[in-house]
Amino acid sequence: MITVTINNKLCQAEADQTILQVATDNGIHIPTLCHMDGIHDSFSCRICVVEVVGARTLIPACAGKVADGMVVNTATESVLSARRNIVNLLLSNGEHNCLSCEKSGECSLQSIAYELGIEAPPFIMESIEKPTVDDSSVMIVRDNRKCILCRRCVTACNDIVCNDVLSLGFRGSDTTVICDNNIDMGSSSCVQCGQCVQACPVGALTDKKSIGKARSWEVKKVRTTCPYCGVGCQLNLHVKGDKIVKVTGVEDAYPNKGRLCVKGRYGYDFIYSPERLTTPLIKENGKFREASWDEALDLVANKFKEIIAADGPDAVGGISCARSINEDSYQMQKLFRAAFKSPNIDHCARVCHAPTVAGLIKSFGTGGMTNSIEEFADTNCLFVIGSNMTEAHPVASTFVKNGQRNGAKLIVVDPRKAKLADYADEFAQIKVGSDVAFLNGLMNVLITEDLYDKDFVRDHCDNFDALKEKVLEYPPKRASEISGVSEEQIISIAHMLADNKPGMAIYTLGITEHTCGTNNVMSVANLQMLLGNVGKPNTGVNPLRGQNNVQGACDMGALPNTYHGYQSVTDPAAKAKFEQAWNVEGLPDKLGLMIPDMFEKLETKEMKAIYIFGENVVGTEPDISHVIKCLEAAEFVVCNDIFQTETTQYADVVLPAAAWSEDEGTFTNCERRISRVRKVKEAPGIAKPNWWIFREIAKRFGQTWEADSGQELWDNEIAPLAPVFAGATFDKLDQGGIQWPCKTPEDPGTQILHLDGNFTHGKGHLMALDWTPPAEVPDADYPFTLSTGRRLYHYHTRTQTGRCEGLNELLPEEYADISEVDAARLGIEHGEMIVVKSRRGTVKVKAQVSERIPEGLVWMAMHYFENNANWLTTRSGDTITKTPEYKACAVAIEKIQ
Amino acid sequence: MNANARGCMEKDERTHLVTDIVAKHKNSKGALIPILHEVQELYGYLPVEAQETIAKEMNVPISEVFGVISFYSFFSLNPKGKHKISICMGTACYVKGSGPILDKLKETLAIGVGETTEDGEFTLEDCRCLGACGLAPVLTINGKVFGRLTKDDIPEIIEGCKTEGGSVL
After folding, report:
1. Residue pLDDT, tens place only, B56-74
2. Which CATH number goes with the domain that contains B119?
3. B137 lies in which domain range?
4. Are residue A802 and residue A847 in the same domain, yes or no?
5. What is the mean pLDDT of chain A?
6. What is the arithmetic mean of pLDDT over A363-373?
7. Residue B105 lies in a domain
8. Where does the record place the 4Fe-4S ferredoxin-type domain (chain A) (predicted)?
9. What order do you get walking across the sheet with A2-6 strand by strand?
10. Are the beta carbons of A274 and A684 closer than 8 angstroms?
11. How far apart are the C-alpha atoms of B97 and B153, rounded to whole Å?
C-alpha cells in the first residue's frame, strides 16, 4: 500500500494502480472519453489529464501510475484549460448537435462540455469535410459527424467480441472509423451485435430501434436475463412506462460481462406484438372461440379427470417449457406428479441435451457444465467439438476468441467449416457422426505415446483398463478412415491437447443429437479425464445448452426420472419427502415417458391427452408429418403459450400466458447459474403467469397450493426441497446470479464442479465406447447427409424472433447450404430454389452454395415452417435418452426443372 | 513487366501471385507492409480482390488491411495512370509558385488531385517536399524531376509524355 494525495485527500493505493483508478476508488471524478478500464489502453483522448506536483507536463490519469507520496490535482486552471482545448477541438469539426441526439443526457462529450461550461464551439474547422451518416445497417446507425475517434467501438469490435469488422482508416483529419474495407455497415461482415453501440461514449453509434423512443432520463434500467440461448446473458432493460426501448449488457455481470448478441440486444419487442394471446381459447367445431378462465380451466381439469379416471394417469403426458422461468417448470411437474399422479413429464432437453445430463451423470455424477464461460478466456487450450458457437451461442464464442488471442490453442472439430474455424489453430473437418472414433483415435495417441495424466487417472478415475483396451482398437489409421480427419492431424491434435494444459472441452448439439449422443458425451468426458482436465480452473467438459432455461427445466424436474434437484422418482425416500412436502399421497414412483414415447403412444391411442407448455413441437420435433399425425390422434390437447403457433392449431384449449418480462422468476444458464428474470409490464389482456395456470388446475383437483409468486415458489418450495439449491434464496439471487450447488446460506455457489478430482459419485468413470454409425446413412436413393441447426438471426421456429423488428430482415427465409462441388456437379446456382427430400418429407428451399460445407453434406435450419428441416429429419434417437438424430439423416437434392 | 502485360494477365493468375507474395512474407514480423508493396507492384494499385486475398491468406481482418493501405499515401486504392505526376506543395515550392502550376495541371488534364485521366495516361498527385528545394518549384513524372517550372511549361511537358518516347521522358 502506498499513499497518494488527490485534491488534498489522502488516498490509499496499490503501487500498480493508475491515477484514474485511485481517483475513481476514492470518489474523485476525472472525465474520460476513450478509456475502457482494463480493456482499452490507447490513452489517446487526453481529456483525463491531471496535474502531478513536480511533473514537467500534465499527465493522463488513465496511463499515469501512482507513486508513494504523489500529489495530484484534478481541476487546476491548467488542467481545465487543457481539457477545454481538447473539447473545443473535438467540437470544431463534425456536427455535435444535442437537440435530438439519442445520447443526450448520457453522452460523455456533452457532460464534459457541461462541466467546462462550453456552450458552443468557439471555432469551426470549415476546411475539414463533414463526415456522413451510414444508416445502411438494419440495427445500427453510424453518425460519423458525431464521432470523436476515441476508438472504443474499434476495441469493442476487435478485442472484446472479436468480430473484426471495425478499424480506423485514412489519416490526419481524414481519419474515420471504417467497416471492413471501407464499405457501408449494412454490406459489411458486421453481425450487428451492437457492442460498438454500447461502447460509444457519444451519439455516433445508436441502436436504430431505439431512435425517438425515449430520452435517457426518462428510462429506468431493469436488470434481467436474456430470453434466448443458454448462455444467460445479463441485460439492462431500458424501460419507459411499460415499454422496453433499448437493451444493453450489464457491464460487471457474469457470464457476459456486458456483451450481447444481435438477438439479446435487439430481440426484445416480441412481447408487444399485437398477435399475443390475450384470452383463453376453446376450440369448437374446428374453430377457436374466446372463453373465461373459469370455463377454460374447468374444461381442462374435467377432461384430465375424465381421461385419468377412464384410462389411468399414464394416459396423460406433459411437455414443459425450457424458455419460461424455473418456477413455471417446477409447478408443471408438480401438477403432473402431485395432482394427476402421472410420471409423464418431460421437456425439450429431450431433443437437445438429454445425452449431456445422462452422460455426465454417468461419467462424473452431475449432469451439468463443469466449469464456467469466463474461464474460456483464461485457459491454455480450447477443444470445441460439434458447436457452431458464433451463431448459436455468440457471446460464449467471444470468450473462446478472447482465449485464443490470449494465447490458448483453439481446436475446432466440425463437419462444417463454421466461422469459429477461422480463428482455430487446428480445424478438423470430421465426417458427420464419427465423433467417438475420432475421440478414441485421440485417446489412442495419448495412451500409446504415454501422454495422458497418469496421476489423475490413477487417483481419480476407474475403469482405465477397459478404456485402454477399447481405444487401442482405434489407432489413428482406423480413426482417420472413419472420421475423415488425417492420421497426421489426429496425432498433432492429441499432442496439442497434451502440451497445452489446462484445457477446456466445449461442445454443443453436434455431440448430443445422434443415436450415439450419450456415448459421444461420455467420450468427451473420457478425453478430459485422461488429460487430467477436470476439477480444476480452466478445464472441464462444457456443454453449451440451447435454450435460456433448459438447464433450469432439467433442474426443476421437468424430466420423467427426477424431481427437482435431481432427486430420483424411483427413490422411496425422495417420494416420501415430496409426499409430505406437497401434502399428497401416491406420487408415481416409476419412470415416466420421454417425449418421443409420448408421441408414439398418442398415435396408438394409449395416451389420450397431452399438455404442451410453450413448445412449438410441430416444428421442433423431428419428422413434422408424424408429429401432426400424433397430435391429430390425441383426444385432448392443451397448450399454454404466448402466441398461436403451428402447434396450438392442434389444441382443444389454448391458455394465454405471461411472457418474459411479464413475470418475476429465475432462469438457470448452462453454467448452472441461477439468475433473476424481472417484470417490466403486465401480461396482455387477461393472460396469466404459467405457475398460476398450473395452480388453478391443481385447485380443481382438490389441492391448495399456497405459493403466490415466483419468489414464494422459490423460497418456500424449490430451494428448501432440493439440497443443491437450498442456499440460493431469492434475496441472494437478487444480488446477482448463483451457480448451483449452493447448499447453505453462506455458500457462494460453485463455479467449478468436482474440484480436485473429487467427483460427485466418487471416482470419475471412464467408459469403453465403440463408434456406431448414424441410423440413416446416405445410399443410392438419398445420397446426401442432412445436418441441422440454428442460424444467428433467428431462434428456433421464430415464435419470438419472427416478431422482432429487424430480425426477419436480417434472415428473411430459409436456405439449404450445399457445397460448391455438389452445386457444380448438379448445376445448382447460389440462390436457386431446389428440392430437398428424405424418406419422410420434401421441401422446396433456396440453395446457399457455401465453401464452408463439405461435399455430400446438406445443412438446414428450422426457422421457417414451410421449409423447416424437420419435415425431413429422422425420429431415430439416442439409445439411452431417445434424443433424435437431428444431425444426420439421408436426403436427396434436386434441381427444379 | 509493363502495364499492358499486367492488364492482360488473368485475374486468377494474379490471385495466385498474391497468395505467393503473402506466403513469402507471412511469417516475418510486420509482414503486411512489404506484402502491400509487392502486390501494388503487381497491379499498379491495391484492388479490392487483392485486399481480400491478403486478408484471407494472412488471417487478419480486411479492415486492418484497408486501414494500413489508406493510412500510407504510397498505397493506392485506385488504378494509376501510365504517367504519375507528383507536384510538390512543400513550403519552398509553394512560395515559388507551385499553386498556379497545380491549377494549370488540373486545367490541362481536366482532373483533380488524386485522380486519373479517363484514358489512363495521367494521375495527378500533390506531395510534400521532394528534397529538391533548390529547383523549386518542382514536380516529378514517374520519378523524373522537372524543376524551376512556370505554369507555361506545363502544356509542353504533358504533350511530351503523350509522344511515345517523347523528349521529356
Report:
1. 999 899 999 999 999 988 8
2. 3.40.30.10
3. 83-162
4. yes
5. 95
6. 92
7. yes
8. 181-210
9. A9-13, A2-6, A71-73, A49-52, A59-60
10. no
11. 13
Q: Residues of A with CB below 8 A from B49's CB?
A: none
% of chain A at pLDDT higher than 70: 100
Helix %, strand %, coil % of chain A (to 5): 35, 20, 45
The x, y and z cell numbers of residue B70, run together, are 489508406
Distance from the A266 Cα atom to the nearest Cα atom in chain B, whole angstroms: 25
**Tell me, what's the pLDDT at B131?**
85
For A743, phi then psi, to 5°, come to: -95, -25
The distance in angstroms from the start CA to the end CA of chain B is 18
- A189 neighbourhood in chain B, CB within 8 Å: 62
B161 is in an annotated binding site: no
A335 φ, ψ (degrees, to nearest 5): -60, -45
> What is the dihedral angle through the alpha carbons of A387, A389, A393, A399, rounded to the nearest 10 degrees?
120
Using CA coordinates, name the residue in chain B closest to A183.
Answer: B63
Residue type, A464: F
| A164·B66 Cβ contact <8 A | no
Q: How far apart are CA A45 and CA A43, in angstroms?
A: 6
Q: Which of B39, B48, B70, B76 to mutate to test the interface with A (most CBs of A within 10 A)?
A: B70
Q: How many domains does chain B have?
A: 2
CA nearest A503: which of A406, A388, A383? A383
Asked if B66's CB is within 8 angstroms of A180's CB, the reply is yes
Which residue of chain B has the CA closest to A178?
A: B63
* pLDDT level of residue A875 (50, 70, 90 thresholds): very high
Residue A20 in contact with residue A41, Cβ under 8 Å? no
Which of A556, A558, A656, A653 lies closest to A609 in space, CA to CA? A653
A346 and A494 belong to one structural domain: no
Best B52, B54, B63, B77 member to test A by mutation, with max A CBs in 10 Å, is: B63
- Structural domain contains residue A758: no
A372 and A334: one domain? Answer: no
The reply to whether B51 touches chain A by the CB within 8 Å rule is yes
CB contact (8 A) between residue A165 and residue B51: no
* A178·B66 Cβ contact <8 A: yes
Q: Could you tell me if residue A374 is left (phi over 0), alpha (psi between -120 and 50 degrees) or otherwise beta?
A: alpha
Q: Residue A641: which CATH number? A: 3.40.50.740
Note whether residue A810 is domain-resident: yes
Nearest to B67 among A169, A189, A422 (CB): A169
Query: Considering its fold, how many domains does chain A have in total?
Result: 5
Strand ranges (DSSP E) for A389-544? 409-413, 426-428, 461-462, 503-507, 541-543
A144 and A171 together in one domain: yes
Residue A772, in any domain of the structure: no
Known binding residue B88? Answer is yes
Helix (H, G, I), strand (E, B) or coil at B73: coil
How big is chain B, counted in residues? 169
Domain boundary among B25, B46, B71: B71
Task: Tell me which residue in A167, A171, A422 faces B64 most closely, judged by beta carbons.
Answer: A167
User: Would an 8 Å CB–CB cutoff place B75 in contact with chain A?
Assistant: no
The answer to whether the annotation marks B133 as part of a ligand binding site is: yes
B12 pLDDT band (50/70/90 cuts)?
low
Last residue of a domain, one of B71, B95, B116: B71
| Predicted TM-score (pTM) of this structure | 0.93
Q: Do A180 and B63 touch (CB under 8 A)?
A: yes
User: Does any domain span residue A91?
Assistant: no
Which chain B residues are within 8 Å of A158, Cβ to Cβ?
61
Determine the structural domain holding residue A7 and report its residue range: 2-75
Whether residues A339 and A245 fall in one domain: no
| Grid coordinates of A594 | 420421454
Residues in A lying within 8 Å of B, measured between beta carbons: 158, 164-171, 178-182, 189, 422
- List the end-to-end C-alpha distance of chain A, in Å, as a whole number: 79
pLDDT for the residue numbered A598: 97
Q: What is the pLDDT of residues A219-255, one digit of tens each?
A: 999 999 999 999 999 999 999 999 999 999 999 999 9
Q: What is the pLDDT of residue B164?
A: 55
